[in-house]
Amino acid sequence: MSDRISNETELIQTYLAPLARGCAGALDLSDDAAYISPIPGMDIVISTDPILAGVHFFADDNANDIAWKALAVNVSDLAAKGAMPVAYTMTLAFPDAPERAWMERFASGLAAAQQAFGCHLIGGDTDRTSGPLAIGITAIGQVPTGKMVRRRGARAGDHVFVTGTLGDAALGLKLRSSGSIFGAKVTDEAKSWLIDRYLRPQPRLQISAVLQRYATAAMDISDGFLKDLRRLCGPQGIALTFSDLPLSTSARQIIMADIEQRACVLAGGDDYEILFSVMAADKAAMMAAASLLGVCIKEVGVLRNESEILVRDDEGNVIEVSQSGYDHFNSL
Amino acid sequence: MSDRISNETELIQTYLAPLARGCAGALDLSDDAAYISPIPGMDIVISTDPILAGVHFFADDNANDIAWKALAVNVSDLAAKGAMPVAYTMTLAFPDAPERAWMERFASGLAAAQQAFGCHLIGGDTDRTSGPLAIGITAIGQVPTGKMVRRRGARAGDHVFVTGTLGDAALGLKLRSSGSIFGAKVTDEAKSWLIDRYLRPQPRLQISAVLQRYATAAMDISDGFLKDLRRLCGPQGIALTFSDLPLSTSARQIIMADIEQRACVLAGGDDYEILFSVMAADKAAMMAAASLLGVCIKEVGVLRNESEILVRDDEGNVIEVSQSGYDHFNSL
């Protein structure tokens, strides 16, 4: 008996249908569509971010991590909108019939992710492709009617915050691609922590309710901090000091040894942290709420009526970044 | 100036954002997510069917037709579930940056389709891929709470119907691949009509309300009539007479000349007609309702308590079909 999955029915019934259990509207993945009965007073929020081997992950990454990332990057968008995930659909395009062992790891990564994020698989489709492995998830969440947090909405005077730490995933990607790149500058423990930050993004769902209540604008950082900050600022601008940006101990270690790596913090992609703004009057209440929920946030600056975004070092010198962030459309 | 689109912002703002106009929750495609405010008393129905160049369409098909098909095959699933479309998300993976003229045709095909089907683009994502052009649409519809028509639900004694005509798209695909295949047996007019049936499926939205009211089970026919009939029958079976199946004049012409082409009717894919069952007691009322709405339907048989599906010719001989329908998973 081959260790590859031989038909779509086995793929769906053995590996995917268990991920739909407990969700009535998924109909055990035995139908051509699924349904959701919306809770009165709630809007449905929808986001879709496919991931492709060779673009968003390495084809030889652990299937468990690939699955986690595929769902996490979509749930991250919902979190940034103040929404909580409910369900997701998933399309899979395989270059070859997957091995059973691979598919088991993939399904187990999804199971862990959907349990962590509180949602179920409700439908999808599988195909074979002459291209790379592609995973297309559409995440569906809910938010009280009219309360979805927009990307546009920040005003001059608003304070800008980020969750977590910046640049870890971009450094992790460098380490994943070429482990020796930072030589003795970084401990093995720090290396594996940074790689994990690249492989397994953590959607900041804990901050979701806080954003809903206080944020004037929010988005997740996926294409690089400065590029996404530009989007959040709209016509406004901001002056930042690099040392005010939240960095992990591991990232700090690397930057202390090689200052060029600041570019990973400013323009590296895949952070999946949330960038948001609040009115000055709400700042204290928002910080108290975030603290109560145990979410790490850090203020990075205040929006002003000049469109420029400037990052300075502690001596006041402007840091120029040649990379302007990730544009998937131009990246191949 | 190159005639290729150089960045994602141009692609979205110039070609796609107009498709979101008129839908508040789409936020002009300027956000990372969209929202839908569900109508009280309605369930949300979700279906996703991506299409890939080389699998579901030819890379050199008219972009207008590719776009139409991408949306139509998804709306067809909603129609079969008794739902009406509201919105859709779309992911695009391009092997090369698209030419502006191509993208204009693609957007105009989508505009025509979404106007015909009554829905808007509300979000999505674009990527570059080393694989073939891939279009991943997730369609979102609505149906009165609890009224989504299931694929499972047909019982012995139920009458089985199909909309429209069968086999046209499979014959059209043969003609599209090799125009001369049927020689003088088929007029140019019939050829182009059949190819059009392959290129531009017509989701049977008119029947949607009828299904909601009367169908015990329903699904659209995309993988071949017999394969999908097997799914609808569940543990039941059915005995059919080939001449009872609804055929277009063009398909009939070809089959009269080459009886082997009956396989296109029985096992060819891409029909996007709706297969459904009703209780005997509801048959007359259902037919009256369908007639009032101007939908062509035809009864093909009655479900019985034997699992076998048999197709006979007018002499009572069983027609054997070697192809068992299309399995995209095994097709490459």
Characterize the overall form of chain A.
globular
Largest sheet of chain A: 6 strands, mixed
Under CATH at level 1, the class of the largest domain in chain A stands as Alpha Beta
Indicate the mean pLDDT of chain A: 94
Number of domains of chain A: 2
Radius of gyration of chain A: 21 Å
In terms of quaternary structure, the protein is homodimer
Distance between the termini of chain A: 39 Å
| Total beta strand runs of chain A | 12
Helix content of chain A: 25-40%
The number of helices of chain A is: 10
Task: Summarize the structure in words.
2 copies of one chain form a homodimer. Chain A contains 10 helices and 12 strands. Chain A is α+β, with helices and mostly antiparallel strands. Chain A has 2 domains: 137 residues, 60s Ribosomal Protein L30, Chain: A; 172 residues, Alpha-Beta Complex (Phosphoribosyl-aminoimidazole Synthetase, Chain A, domain 2), CATH 3.90.650.10. Chain A has a 6-stranded mixed beta sheet. In chain A, strand 4, helix 3 and strand 5 form a beta-alpha-beta unit.
Give keywords:
alpha+beta; homodimer; 2 domains; Phosphoribosyl-aminoimidazole Synthetase, Chain A, domain 2; 60s Ribosomal Protein L30, Chain: A; 10 helices; globular; 5-stranded mixed sheet; 332 residues
